[in-house]
Design brief:
The complex is a heterodimer of chains A (362) and B (310). Chain A has 362 residues and is mainly alpha-helical. Chain A has 14 helices and four strands. Chain A folds into two domains: 87 residues, no CATH class; 223 residues, no CATH class. In chain A, the strands form two sheets. A two-stranded antiparallel sheet of chain A has the order 1-4. A two-stranded antiparallel ribbon of chain A has the order 2-3. Chain B has one domain: ABC transporter involved in vitamin B12 uptake, BtuC (Orthogonal Bundle), CATH 1.10.3470. In chain B, helix 1 runs parallel beside helix 6, helix 2 crosses helix 9 and helix 6 crosses helix 7. The radius of gyration of chain B is 19 Å and the shape is globular. Classes of the chains: A mainly alpha (362), B mainly alpha (310).
């Protein structure tokens, strides 16, 4: 007899995370089947539709790719902060800030040639997100204010700011009283890559690869990891923690801002409240599943993009699109659960041993 | 500004405040034990849909409230399982709980959208008390959940400061190994706190769909879970201060739809930014003060505890 206790493995299982990820997907799909059966749907038909609509044809791939772009950039934003042990929960608001800045440029840049307009829009988007990241960055670096809460609160502030713009200064006089911003000019639209996909996918991939390279190959990236694993060691090595914290949080905000700019320019007719579409929060799950690694972020973002496109497609079958939201969260829980067992193992502890163990042993 | 509209504003401030207070108290209990749960919004949504659905089926609002609290507690225990038992990252698990809760609630409630409520929680009849000018309508015309929220606040404050369980619970959030060495189970204390947090968030959700806006729509929680998280910080992890904050934030929510009545020329949208901005301000003040004296936030908040690794 006895009870089960989690014990750390001597060595972390190799290939643990991809395996955990896979287990997460299987867990999510299994629970999904259960939910669908209970609610009177044919789970296999639903999954088949989700699969076909997200990866079944070039067109469906293009839709998946378009969703993977903001997911991947938001995921990268979280991962950049996460590589130093910081949490940026504000990607949702930074996406909005980026989209707002891009929309503002589109308003004042009417008549500019398209490549110029789009470039300035995206740069403005980066600065918008970075600006929203700057506050929490200063507060954290200078006073030690917990960045989780400040970034979280700024999400709501950014959302209210956008609502105010749409209801007030930016309201389209021709919208017949509806709170809508005017349509974006055609020059502000990102050109198409193939089918529905726009060039945002290329930009996102470059940004993700670039950070991956910088983080793994440069001294700066090395310092980042040292600072993330131990502040003490970093101080001995002469790395300025304050400066690192500032850089990382502002960079993280800028990347999320870029996601907002691309989303506006590539996918939206006009700026709306829903332009951030929950990508910022989903990005946290993406980054967590990728263990804060850029290469992993791209892969997970693609999968989540597919799940989201699939979720939208099943609405015509009378199934709530919330199935995709549920699946995304379940993949994460399944993967965390499985991930724990790549580092830990269950051991049965006998009563006597247990009571010995309970003695303080410092 | 007429007397009637002032009374209306204060009455609404109390009823909105109670909603925020319930959810914030739950988060406070959880955080006091060292577990940050960013799943409040999701737990509220689960409570809201459960309450509404049970009321539809049974036409019994009280039963609906109780089931919503149970579902909230069970749902929160998912976060408990992953963070307390498996030691997962609290931020990630909590946010996933929010996403899962919003998704599940939308899925479960799909056919309940737009339906009239099966039952609502009617205001308590206090007899002659509700005729007292000002005090009567503001305090003695409220739904039972408002009094429940006040009751919960008093009990929480008492348990946390005056009982050994409360002491152990706070210990779990300050220094888990000390509590462990004193013979308490950190896992049980933390799981209990997380479940309580879920139950209160569930009650807040049910309060929405059984009383404040008696219908179910996707997104009925409308970010109020985040205000509850803010409120805990605003109240510096103290039930009493949180109550004051809840009245203030509740008042802002109530004022939003009444600005024009009061002849104030301010966008209600900008007004609704205030709670978040205030919370950031309070957090900065707390952080500056923490340099010279002990911080008011639980020391072990956000840290997993594994006995073998202490």
């Amino acid at each position: 007899m006895g009870r089960l206790v989690l014990t750390r493995r001597e060595q972390t299982l190799r290939g643990g995370q991809p395996l955990a990820f896979l287990i997460g997907i299987v867990t999510a799909l299994s629970i999904g089947i259960l939910l669908l059966v209970i609610s009177g749907h044919d789970p296999m038909a639903v999954y088949e539709r989700m699969f076909d609509s997200s990866v079944g044809s070039p067109k469906s791939w293009s839709l998946t790719l378009n969703r993977a772009v903001p997911l991947g950039l938001a995921g990268l934003a979280v991962a950049v902060a996460g590589s130093m042990g910081l949490w940026n929960i504000g990607a949702e608001g930074q996406i909005l800030a980026g989209a707002m800045m891009a929309a503002w440029i589109a308003r004042i840049g009417e008549g500019w040639p398209s490549p110029l307009l789009i470039t300035v829009m995206l740069l403005a988007a980066i600065s918008g997100g970075a600006l929203l990241g700057l506050g929490p960055a200063i507060a954290r670096a200078q006073i030690g204010v917990n960045e989780i809460i400040t970034t979280l609160m700024l999400n709501e502030v950014a959302l209210r700011l956008l609502q105010w713009l749409i209801h007030g200064p930016w309201k389209d006089p021709e919208s017949k009283g509806f709170p809508l911003a005017p349509m974006l000019p055609g020059e502000a639209r990102l050109p198409d890559l193939f089918e529905r996909a726009h060039w945002g996918a290329v930009i996102a991939l470059i940004v993700i690869a670039l950070f991956g390279l910088v983080a793994s190959k440069t001294a700066w990236g090395y310092e980042l990891r040292v600072a993330g694993s131990s502040g003490e060691t970093a101080r001995f090595a002469g790395i300025s923690l304050k400066r690192k914290i500032m850089t990382v949080l502002v960079l993280s905000g800028g990347i999320a801002g870029l996601a907002g700019g691309i989303e506006l320019s590539g996918n939206a007719d006009r700026i709306v409240e829903g332009v951030s579409g929950g990508y910022g929060f989903a990005g946290i799950i993406v980054a967590a599943l990728a263990l804060m690694r850029p290469s992993g972020v791209a892969a997970v973002a693609l999968l989540f993009g597919a799940v989201q496109v699939g979720g939208l497609s099943i609405q015509t079958m009378g199934v709530s699109s919330s199935v995709s939201t549920i699946l995304q969260a379940l993949i994460l829980f399944g993967a965390i659960g499985a991930g724990v067992f790549s580092r830990y193992t269950l051991k049965r502890v006998r009563k006597e041993q247990d009571s010995i163990k309970a003695e303080p042993n410092e | 500004m007429s007397e009637a509209s002032m009374i209306g504003l204060l009455t609404a401030a109390v009823s909105f405040g109670a909603l925020l207070y319930l959810a914030a108290l739950g988060e406070l209990i959880s955080e006091k034990a060292g577990i940050l749960n960013l799943g409040v919004e999701g737990m509220m949504a689960m409570g809201a849909v459960t309450g509404f659905m049970v009321a539809l089926e049974t036409e019994n609002a009280w039963l609906a409230l109780i089931v919503a609290m149970l579902v909230g507690a069970l749902f929160a225990l998912i976060h408990g399982l992953f963070t307390v038992v498996l030691g997962a990252e609290q931020v990630v698990s909590g946010l996933s709980l929010t996403i899962l809760g919003l998704g599940l609630a939308a899925f479960v409630g799909k056919n309940a959208v737009g339906r009239p409520p099966g039952a609502v929680l009617a205001p308590v009849d206090w007899g002659g008390l509700s005729d007292i000018p000002w005090v009567g309508p503001i305090l003695f015309s409220q739904s039972p959940i408002v009094y429940f929220a006040i009751f919960c606040g008093v009990v929480t404050s008492f348990v946390l400061t005056r009982t050994s369980t409360g002491l152990a619970l706070r210990g779990a959030g300050e220094s888990a190994s000390t509590v462990d060495a004193s013979g308490h189970s950190v896992v049980q204390l933390r799981l209990g706190a997380v479940a309580m947090g879920g139950a209160l968030a569930g009650a807040a959700g049910a309060y929405l769909t059984l009383c404040l806006t008696p219908q179910w729509t996707e997104g009925v929680t409308a970010g109020r879970g985040w205000i509850a998280v803010a409120l805990v910080i605003f109240g510096a992890w103290r039930p009493g201060r949180c109550a004051i904050g809840a009245l203030l934030f509740g008042g802002l929510l109530a004022l939003k739809t009444r600005l024009q009545t009061f002849g104030v020329d301010l966008s209600p949208i900008l007004l609704s930014m205030i709670p978040y901005v205030l919370t950031i301000g309070v957090l900065i003040v707390i952080s500056i003060r923490a340099r010279n004296r002990p911080s008011s936030s639980p020391a072990a908040l956000g840290q997993a505890y594994r006995r073998e690794e202490r």
